[in-house]
Amino acid sequence: MNILLVGAGLSGAVIGRQLAEAGHDCRIIDSRPHIGGNCHTQRDPETGVMLHLYGPHIFHTDDEGVWAYVNRHADFVPFQNRVKTTSQGAVYSLPVNLHTINQFFGTTLRPDEARAFIESKADNSIADPETFEEQALRFVGPELYEAFFKGYTEKQWGCSPRELPASILKRLPVRFNYDDNYFFHRFQGMPRDGYTAMIEDILDHPRITVELETSYDPAMADDADHVFWSGPLDGFFGYSLGRLGYRTLDFERFTYQGDYQGCAVMNYGDRDVPWTRITEHKHFSPWESHEGSPCYREYSREAGPKDIPYYPIRLVEEKSLLTQYIDLARSQEKVTFVGRLGTYRYLDMDVTIREALDTAGVFLGAEKAGTAV
Ligand code: UDP
């Protein structure tokens, strides 16, 4: 079969590879001049530091199959993300853990005491939190919410945490011990030569062709037996029902000589600091040594029609438009919608790869191919 995959990010590459190995010819197009989508990495010509050009990406998973898959395509170096946050004139450890709690409240609580203390601050009248704010008030109480989540989230999402789903905050744990590993997964690491090299390896198959700086044209689908779409879900339909909301990011670079902040990611919880975080990329490759240190202040704003979409917003009230697009997508027999943008979900890399492997499996296994979203 002739398969067209729109988007050369993780979804397109993984599905393309699975289908190519099964004997299908895969044409992968991408409008950008590089593969890898927003996982794209590139060495900085000035300092030699490996940059995550679209913001920090740390690989973490509990999925043994996905971990084995990425290790077949890249050499992974163990890496644990330890994020700090600057708030109200002090630096704290994230995710909220026993150190954060004791430092913030000036206490010396032990785990059980801290749990009881935070529980005493929680709003127990919220039985089933639906919004980000309800989730925060229910699980960390008002003080920690104000210091670490409210301002950051307003900057990151451009709206009140009352309008955002609880699922966004559920990404972050609260720990009653001193574990400050940002992620809880068993397998965590960084590809030694960056994500783009890993995706290049996935794409390295004689039945795969990649065309960069190539925009999708509906006529291309005529030559294909099936299309996998990893562009924006609403974009496939020409935004005919209206636009789903996305956040985009702006990065402001400065180069420091030495070590600027002592960690890869420093968040800024205060509302009056305009950036959400500063990423110092050389800390993502601690096995390398560079004197120059590129740092990026990150600003979030609503994506306009020409901006790169990063985060699907999924406002609580936006669900009905999404449902309509999902219905449209389901009616497309020849097209499968995949990935973060194609399914309009906040997906981590490991989930994206798992879903891509499963989608390819369903496609290859099913007589009637092409189950949408
Ligand atoms: N968040 C926050 N304060 C922080 C870090 C995260 O309020 O210091 C909230 C924010 O709404 C963010 C969400 O938690 O969008 C998920 O955080 P995560 O670190 O997973 O975001 P990502 O790295 O994917 O941008």
Topology, pairings included?
Elements lengths: L1 E5 L3 H12 L3 E5 L11 E3 L6 E3 L6 E3 L2 H10 L2 E3 L5 E4 L2 E4 L4 H8 L5 H11 L10 H8 L1 H17 L8 H5 L16 E5 L3 H9 L4 E4 L6 H5 L3 E4 L3 H4 L9 E12 L7 E4 L8 E4 L11 E11 L8 E2 L6 H12 L4 E3 L1 H4 L6 H17 L8
Parallel strand pairs: 1-2, 1-11, 2-10, 7-13, 11-17
Antiparallel strand pairs: 3-4, 5-9, 6-9, 7-8, 12-15, 12-16, 13-14, 14-15
Descriptive account of the structure:
The chain is α/β, with parallel strands linked by helices and 373 residues long. Among the domains are: 2-43 and 56-79 and 191-241 and 314-365, NAD(P)-binding Rossmann-like Domain (Rossmann fold); 94-170. The chain is built from 13 helices and 17 strands. It has helices at 10-21, 64-73, 98-105, 111-121, 132-139, 141-157, 166-170, 195-203, 218-222, 233-236, 319-330, 339-342, 349-365; strands at 2-6, 25-29, 41-43, 50-52, 59-61, 76-78, 84-87, 90-93, 187-191, 208-211, 226-229, 246-257, 265-268, 277-280, 292-302, 311-312, 335-337. Strands 8-7-13-14-15-12-16 form a 7-stranded mixed sheet. It has a 5-stranded parallel sheet with strand order 10-2-1-11-17, covered by helices on one side. Strands 5-9-6 form a 3-stranded antiparallel sheet. Helix 1 (10-21) packs parallel to helix 8 (195-203). The two termini are 21 Å apart.
